[in-house]
Amino acid sequence: MKPEDLKLFELIQSDEAAGTLYLKNRRVLLIDADALGVLRRELITKLGVHEARRVLARFGYAYGYRSALTVRQWFVEEGEDDWWRLGMKLRSLDGSVRVRPLRLEVDLERGVFEAESEWVNSYEADQHLSHLGVSPIPVCWTLVGYASGYASAVLGKEVFFVETECVGRGDARCLAYGSTNIEPGSEVARRALEYSLLSDEEFMSLIKRSKGERASLQNFLEELEKRSLELAKEHERVRELESQVVYLQESLNESYNVSELVGVSPSFKQVMRDVAQVAGSDATVLLTGETGTGKELIARAIHSRSERKQRPLVTVNCAALPAGLVESELFGHEKGAFTGAAQRRLGRFEIANGATIFLDEVGEIPLETQSKFLRVLQEGEFERVGGTQTIKVDVRVIAATNQPLQKLVAEGKFRSDLFYRLNVFPIRLPPLRERREDIRLLTNYFAQKFRARFRKNISSIEQETLERLLHYPWPGNIRELEHVVERAVLLAEGTVLKINLPLAGNETVNHEQAAQAASPAKTKLMTFEEMERHYLQEVLKRTGGVIAGKGGAAEILNLPASTLRSRMKKLGLR
Q: Where residue 525 falls among pLDDT bands split at 50, 70, 90?
């Protein structure tokens, strides 16, 4: 990052609940400048000018040294010149002073550093004049300490700064000079003697004492920075775990049970053989099949049989993501990456690190996001939206679609290289009409499931009902069968379950009508929305319109009352 690109509010992270501000991994404070002026006055009054100067210079040195370590860790990808210039930019961002560089020479190989800068609007000079008046010596002590500490961290060698002109002393400007050469007769020594009103003995005493103190201080600060980085990594880990917890809480509201993989048909057995064969590997799996054939259940079956089963299966419905937020949802974003990005957010791939991600309706991923998705599959790395840091992840991918991806490739709507990368191990899920041997088993399973949920005393299923189910085409596949059985159980009044198929008008379908239903052109089928509306109407009729509370519709449906009200509003029910 170049110094001119640095923006304060992109660096600061606020945790209002904890009452903390962070500059990357460092906790920082917002302090009133006038309060620092009062502190300066108290130090000088109690300790004297020379001791107060020593305390404030050490404070500035610590501040500068740690700032340099932080900048090196998080921002600098260029040379040492930029590293130094970033330190100057930070001073203007935090409101201390605007640094106008006049001369700079940095040579790490020779261990040479020499810089001269004008300090514009120094807070220290202003505060000293405000609280103490004009000084006989330069007064920007924390700024001198900061510059010395920052430059010493950059160079890895002791750098000493002096202020050669100072507004607080009555000069027209504040001018600072720094160098690695601090021996007697050097430019630093000459300027210190000339402008700081130090004797030669005082200056050398200051240098000797400073060297020893700063060597000790450097060791302490480097150890502190090391611990801060470790703490930052732990903090990042906590944020990752918090994101996983939030995701798992969302997932718990969805009812998916791998035990619903019921069937004896040859086509279903082949699917389960494929699952057993691929589950133990990390191969990418592409599930294809019509809507309602159980693609997510198969994905969960693969994950539950894999070595990653101790971690959550992270699911993403690509079709439900707004076009503008797909990349953010998958890969996360940095704070300020776009309007509304108030804080950094981890994407689903980052949450799924070490686990499995299930991308449902993968054909809906926009073309502009597909290249980044391909990179994750091939290299296991990506950047968050608005970020520059490359993030490495170890994620097993299972994708699903009810669309013909090869057709989308031919139409230019899906990348061919992405299709081939996803199609490593394809599994086709057969529609229910191709596995009629399983209809009786599935009906029995769902009847038992909803009998327990709705506390019904059902002991058997009418034989004619089963015959009708066997001849129905099931355009909605297993999901449609489940909904039909759920509705029938809810409405059942005796011990024998009778099921009416979901045709327009909700008329009961006999054996001949069920056979005719195989031709969609002859009979208008109800949409899922129509089925849901009718279903909710029946429940509300039975509860007398009561939604919440014991015996209410929400309890019967095993839904939060707020969710039920939202669905009713969407379906136009009152």
A: very low
